[in-house]
Design goal:
Helix content is about 70%, strand content about 0%. By secondary structure, the chain is an all-alpha fold. The radius of gyration is 19 Å and the shape is elongated.
Length: about 190
């Protein structure tokens, strides 16, 4: 077996973190499990990270993409799809475990990081998309709300928490079967 160093070893460690969280959960994650899964030793891990939370936080920090605050500007459906596909990519890169950790077990720093990098920017981008669509007359201005902007990410997060990385078809269904019908529905009352 060839010894890995630098970024190759770090990536193997981060992959092992996500695999192990998926397999045993955050509460049962240990440095020993990560070291074994990564094909390295605990002393190698402890030289860089003093705790599993520090390791998980660093794995998330290095692996999570940054979602842009602004929508691409292609139109309502296309922008919603682009934003939610970017969020889906974040689920995929962490094998869904980032959101399992955030949902239940990890510390405040992990939750804050995911919110700053993913959920808050996705919310802002969706809200901007809704406001732009309202200005173009595609939807009623009353539909451009914080609650509506939370629906797509919440549905994808719910799937990821259940251990399922949402696929592209799921993202399309969230947009086409949930968001667009809601956004185009006649006003109540």
């Amino acid at each position: 077996m060839t010894r890995r160093h630098g970024s190759e070893l770090q990536q193997a460690i981060f992959d092992a973190v996500f695999e192990q969280i998926g397999a045993v959960g955050y509460a049962r994650l240990t440095m020993d499990r990560v070291a074994t899964a990564a094909g390295t030793s605990k002393p190698v891990l402890y030289r860089r990270w003093d705790s599993k939370e520090a390791l998980v936080l660093d794995a998330l920090r290095e692996s999570l993409p940054v979602i842009a605050d602004t929508p691409p500007g292609r139109g309502l459906r296309e922008d919603l799809l682009a934003i939610l596909h970017a969020l889906r990519a974040a689920f995929a890169v962490t094998k869904g475990t980032a959101f399992h950790v955030i949902a239940a077990e990890a510390g405040q720093d992990c939750r804050r990081l995911a919110d700053e990098r993913l959920f808050a920017p996705a919310h802002r981008a969706i809200l901007a998309t809704l406001h732009a669509a309202a200005e173009r007359g595609e939807i009623r201005p009353q539909r451009a709300t914080d609650l509506v902007a939370d629906i797509g990410p919440a549905l994808l997060r719910g799937r990821a928490i259940d251990g399922t990385v949402p696929d592209q078809a799921t993202v399309g269904a969230v947009v086409d079967e949930v968001l667009l019908p809601l956004l185009h529905a006649p006003a109540a009352g």
